[in-house]
Amino acid sequence: MKLLWAATAGAIGCNLGSLVAYEMAAMADVRWSSVRTMDSDGRRELDWADRFFQRWGDMAVFIARCCQ
Question: How far apart are CA 53 and CA 60, in angstroms?
Answer without folding.
Answer: 8
